[in-house]
Here is the input.
Amino acid sequence: MAKAWKFGHDIDTDAIIPARYMNRSEPEHLAAHCMEDADASFAKKVQKGDIIVAGKNFGCGSSREHAPIAIKAAGVKAVIAESYARIFYRNALNIGLPILECPEAVQGIEAGDEVEVDLASGKIENKTKGTTFQARPFPPFMQELIKAGGLVPYVKEKMKNA
Amino acid sequence: MGMTISEKILAAHAGVDQVVPGEIINAKLDIVHANDVTGPVAIKEFEKFGVDKVFDKEKITLVPDHFTPNKDIPSAEQSKILKEFAKKMEIKHYWEIGRVGIEHCLLPEQGVVLPGDLIIGADSHTCTYGALGAFATGVGSTDCAAGMATGEAWFRVPESLKFVFHGANFQPWVSGKDLILYIIGKIGVDGARYKAMEFAGDGIRALSMDNRFTICNMAIEAGAKTGIIEPDEITLEYVKARAKREYKIYKSDPDAQYEEIYEFNSAEIPLQVAFPHLPENTKSVDEASGIKIDQVVIGSCTNGRLEDLEVAAKILKGKKIHPEIRCLVFPGTQQILLEAMRNGWIEAMIEAGAVVSTPTCGPCLGGHMGILAKGERALATTNRNFVGRMGNPQSEVYLCNPAVAAASAIRGEIVHPREVVNYG
Here is the structure.
């Protein structure tokens, strides 16, 4: 079951992946240190399919694409936040990490809650509390882009089929 | 309807007469930039496109500055990827160690980025070039790769916020760093999220280019897409000695639309210190007075320019750095280092007991050359004071301008420069 990991406001990219690990860029290396400076135990405990839930301005700071890569490679299925920093938002979608903006869901989800996210409809279900929230769903092309694994594989696929 | 300088640059590069905030445009790029951290990831993505050349080998800049001179074997491998790609693609603007500098000091100095340009860079502080009257914004490695392949990128035209400084009568030692920290303290680290920050007024026009670069550099710390200043005589003076290609001056129309206009009285802004762990946690230097520090860092893409070194050196000259303090100086480029040396400023800093490094991003991002241990505290002229930014997650970074940094290095605790030297 997908478990929620809760973080506060202004979680910066240095907290998501500290620069001291950016002398390498392999996704599995980055995943091993994901969220380390916000929660040192996260990378060890996170399970495939878990969800990150955070406050406003998630991913502020540097332009490092290593940040969404680390989250995705750690097995996180989606991020739900009140809002995102601009560069992080674009980077996350470019590498195929689904990120939803939904302040109500952030208020209504506690750490450890079981959460299910349907990317097609934008529906967020807190199974622990029996509540549901509605985020704005991604348009079909963005869902395809995420499914393809990001912008580059998406564009390549499109070119192949053109 | 009138347009802002940002809207005019975006419209011109999209090949249209008019753009409005919120509109999505596809635009031609003048410069696509990456460094030794973001470049290798971008190159990996670029190679997936299956194209064998970049869109224009004169319009790509690759700068190995973050973990260089290479700090360990993995970072040496990253730098090698950058270098080999530059060679294979015949990239004109690649600099080897010894000629390189901190990217956002180097590219304006070398005249590679110019007024009116549309620039994307795989580094968040790419917004620095807005000081030249360019529209420059940070992107991730994938967008950078697409830019290197196609010479184009899509943009959402940002709303503009205007920050007007009235009067050139700043308090002693107040610099561009204090103005931008003051703004971030007022609007918060997401106060300009997705927006363009335009800085204006006779206060801004009185500032040197070095101070203007510092201001635009930190627009990202308010979440902005870019920071920008209309070019004037000071800009043109800086640019004309450096430009090797044509450039264009854009200015905001008198009836341009701003989402919000903030007005400040320059004389009222005191020296600023940003407390851990966000740049928005600003207070006046007097409120920070007496806080003990272990390390002082002077330099970076924010404050590693010639004037920054001058201010610090003049405070340190003839004085001694506190016996328990490590004071590390990082000039922005080799040229800056050389000029500071010729002016006697490097000598003054070394005699005072500072370490002067080769240009590198170094400790600013906790990379190397000055990492903090658990419980240690740094006062730095850099741009971010996030948790773990300069080393151990339980270390702390305070941000300030070069004068406060130099004075505090002497005292061993945060102090107003007037406590250490006379002004002027």
